[in-house]
Design goal:
Layout (H helix, E strand, L loop, with lengths): L1 H23 L7 E2 L2 E2 L2 H13 L3 H14 L4 H17 L3 H14 L3 H22 L1
Antiparallel strand pairs: 1-2
Helix pairs in contact: 2-3, 3-4, 4-5, 4-6, 5-6
Length: 133
C-alpha cells in the first residue's frame, strides 16, 4: 500500500514539474503580419527578447528575417550578421560564430560593427585555445 502511495506521489510531482516546464517554454513570435514582414525595429525587439530569455535559436531566426526581408538596408544587415555571430558565440558554436564575424569584417563598412567583430574573433581564438588545453 505504501509503495503505491509513493509511486502515486512521484507521478504527481513529475507531472507537475513537466507542466511547469512546458508552460514556461515560449514559442517563437510571429515574424510576419498579414503575410508581410515586420519592421526592422520589430524584428530587433523580438530578437533581443528571445536572446534575453536564452532562446538563442529564436533570436537567430529573427535576425535572419532582417537579412532576408531587408537586404538593401546595409546597416541593419551588418548588425544582424554581428548579432547572429554573437548568438553562436554564446552557444559556444565558435565555427559558426566565426563565419558571421568574418562576414562583418570583410563585407560591410560599419566601423563599430567591424571593430566589435574583430574583438569577438580574438575571443573565439582564446576560447578555442582553452578548449584544446
Amino acid at each position: 500500500m505504501r509503495k503505491n502511495l509513493y509511486t502515486y506521489l512521484y507521478l504527481i510531482i513529475i507531472l507537475t514539474i513537466s507542466y511547469i516546464f512546458l508552460s514556461c517554454a515560449s514559442k517563437m513570435p510571429a515574424l510576419y503580419k498579414d503575410g508581410k514582414p515586420l519592421t526592422i525595429i520589430e524584428y530587433d525587439k523580438i530578437a533581443q527578447k528571445e536572446f534575453d530569455n536564452n532562446r538563442f535559436d529564436n533570436a537567430i531566426t529573427a535576425y535572419e528575417a532582417i537579412i532576408t526581408n531587408y537586404p538593401d538596408k546595409l546597416r541593419a544587415s551588418t548588425w544582424a550578421h554581428y548579432e547572429i555571430g554573437f548568438c553562436y558565440y554564446v552557444k559556444e558554436e565558435y565555427d559558426k560564430a566565426e563565419i558571421y564575424f568574418r562576414k562583418v569584417t570583410n563585407e560591410f563598412q560599419e566601423p563599430a560593427a567591424k571593430k566589435l567583430a574583430r574583438d569577438m574573433l580574438a575571443k573565439i581564438v582564446e576560447a578555442k585555445n582553452k578548449k584544446k588545453k
